[in-house]
Amino acid sequence: MDTPRSNFLKTQIQADLDAGRSDCVVTRFPPEPNGFLHIGHAKSISVNFGLAAEFGGQCHLRFDDTNPEKENQIFIDAIQEDLRWLGYEWHGEVRFASSYFEQLYQWALVLIDAGNAYVCDLDAEEARAYRGTLTEPGKDSPYRGRTTAENRDLFQRMRAGEFADGACVLRAKIDMASPNINLRDPILYRVRHATHHQTGDDWPIYPTYDFAHGQEDAIEGITHSICTLEFEDHRPLYDWLIEHLPVPHRPRQIEFARLNTSYTVTSKRKLKLLVDSGTVDGWDDPRMPTVAGMRRRGYPPAAIRHFCEEVGTSRSDGMVDMAMLEHAVRGHLNETAPRAFCVLRPLKVVLTNVDETSVLRIANHPSDESLGHREVPFGPELWIDSDDFRESANKKYKRLVIGKRVRLRGAYVIEADRCDTDKAGTVTTVYCRVIENTLGEDPGDGVKPKGVIHWVASHGAATAELRLYDRLFNDANPGRAEELLSVVNTDSLATIVDAVIEESLTNAEPEQVFQFEREGYFVADRHAHSNATPVFNLTIGLRDTWGG
Ligand code: ATP
Ligand code: MG
Ligand code: MG
Asked: For the sheet containing 535-540, what is the strand order?
């Protein structure tokens, strides 16, 4: 789907094609495997895969794995699973920046040989002082004048593992007086004696993002390297490296604004803090804005894709209301989720004029007949929600009241006669009568029911655990909080252990989503749900209750 705001990337790509600067479109999604994918990544995925599809091109999946200490095979696997779940398939093999380490090393030597890179022994603090500031130019490093032969020798020894972490770096020789700090002799390689998940102990040096990314793009024949705005100031460096190296292609970097959603953090570092502190139940906790969390929450992938398209793509940072994603989720589920009955706060109803059980055939969806019907047991004793009964109430209360009528959804009209209460005054049982001939018909005496309530017959019921989720943060912009954990909503999970469900729901498959009528959308938990111990997570309520 097209939106006016998504046009600027397309316009630029189209212009490149028209001018012959590109003859095809190849994009890439380049996650660092240091965490799970989140909603911001979903946006990047939608942009990169979307543009490739739109122009008949290809999109690669490339792990930008240049920081071995923070990366992990678990994340590599999870990212692929999440991408596929979202509905995308990358072109060809999964690619790894680490498989280009030898080529990158050779290109670093090319820069050295041309006098465009040097080994620098300043430590981090000294280097910072030499770098200057936004208003002050930097100063040349005392090591900037090393000869090519000396640099070659030192760099080869860095590669051979002769130096300790932090002892020296390889820097590009560009311009310490550049107004763009990224061009003040940026670091290309660091010494880091770390075991890498792909390359083991082969490399004691690792390229920086700046040195690696554009060259990886060039190796893969990426035509348009789409990234977020914080890399705009790195683009001159990206282009400088491409110009000074014998790369096989000339990719073009284009930036767009990150997606920020309210009540959410989309920084892997912060998401990791939530996981490591035990604030949530892992990366796929249903409250997490991760793809795996949204999956476990019951969000349909199509709704996430739809949302990412709807928000468009812009060049200025903004905050998107989380309600917009929820609106998309609700819209998809309203059309696709089968209906079922679940009573959250069970109250017993005895139907005094019913003495036999029967089975009713009830449609699974109000408008989509293809979702079929199910058999729902009916009998002399039912559960209804205790919020759906009052001994007396004013006219605004459209549920069950003594002396008044209500329709049981998909079944009969009943009228309440009396109730039992316990010592504390809590109603324990409501005694009602079924009004004859009211299955799909209004009562013959013309006294219509006040409303419709859901129910479960006690002989055809099972119990379920329900996990009711609320937003994870109290603050609309939790990313700004100094202490992330201080803005966590400590009431974001409420558990009901003994909700009553209709028997058919015990057959639900993990990840199946239902509309529990009048309550909300619920998904059978991916991990905890089984026929013997049903567990459902609240996906989303039936209406937007966030109030903006
Ligand atoms: P984080 O700060 O969470 O670690 P990152 O940008 O470092 O994010 P990467 O794994 O490098 O994470 O991201 C892979 C791709 O996803 C990059 O191209 C990045 O620009 C993009 N991306 C990450 N977050 C967002 C976001 N919020 N909106 C749009 N694109 C994003
Ligand atoms: Mg990154
Ligand atoms: Mg990062």
From this structure: 339-340, 513-516, 520-524, 535-540, 461-469, 493-502, 342-343
pLDDT classification of 1: cutoffs 50, 70, 90: very low
Q: Who contacts 157 (Cβ-Cβ below 8 Å, separation ≥6)?
A: 163
Q: What is the DSSP letter of 507?
A: G
d(CA 200, CA 19): 44
Count CB atoms within 10 A of the CB of residue 115: 11
The question of whether 511 is a catalytic residue gets the answer no
Distance 380 CA to ligand 1 centre (A): 58
CB of residue 234 inside a 6 A radius of ligand 1: no
DSSP string, 321-346: -HHHHHHHHHHHHHHHPPEE-EESSE
> Could you tell me the domains of the chain?
4-256 (3.40.50.620), 268-338+464-540 (2.40.240.10), 341-460 (2.40.240.10)
Q: pLDDT for 421-473, tens place per residue?
A: 999 999 999 999 999 999 999 999 999 998 999 999 999 999 999 999 999 99
Nearest to 468, CA basis, from 512, 424, 520: 520
Task: Note the pLDDT tens digit of each residue in 88-118.
Answer: 999 999 999 999 999 999 999 999 999 999 9
- Residue among 63, 194, 158, 246 at smallest CA distance from 171: 158
Contact 360, 378 (CB under 8 A): yes
- Share in percent of the chain as helix, strand, coil (round to 5): 35, 25, 40
Q: What is the DSSP string of 459-496?
A: GGEEEEEEEEE--SBSSS-GGG-SSGGGGB-TTSEEEE
Residue 72 has pLDDT above 60, yes or no: yes
Catalytic residue among 250, 258, 345, 348: 258
Cα 383-385-390 angle, rounded to 5 deg: 110
Has 448 been annotated as catalytic?
A: no
Work out which ligand 1 atom sits closest to the CA atom of 228: 20
At residue 100, what are phi and psi to the nearest 5 degrees?
-100, 10
54 is catalytic: no
Question: Which two three-digit tokens encode residue 201?
Answer: 């102990």
Which ligand lies nearest to the CA atom of residue 62 in the structure?
1
* ipTM rounded to 2 decimals: 0.97
Looking only at the bridges linking them, the beta strands covering 389-390 and 342-343 are unpaired
Strand pairing class (117-120; 169-172): antiparallel
Distances in whole angstroms, Cα of residue 393 to Cα of each of 193, 388, 413, 458: 74, 11, 19, 26
Measured from the Cβ of residue 56, the count of other Cβ atoms closer than 10 Å reads 8
CB 68 less than 6 A from any atom of ligand 1? no
Q: Which two tokens stand for residue 315?
A: 């060049």
Ligand 1 atom nearest to 259, measured from its CA: 28
pLDDT in tens, 224-278: 999 999 999 999 999 999 999 999 999 999 999 999 999 999 999 999 999 999 9
CA distance 416 to 421: 14
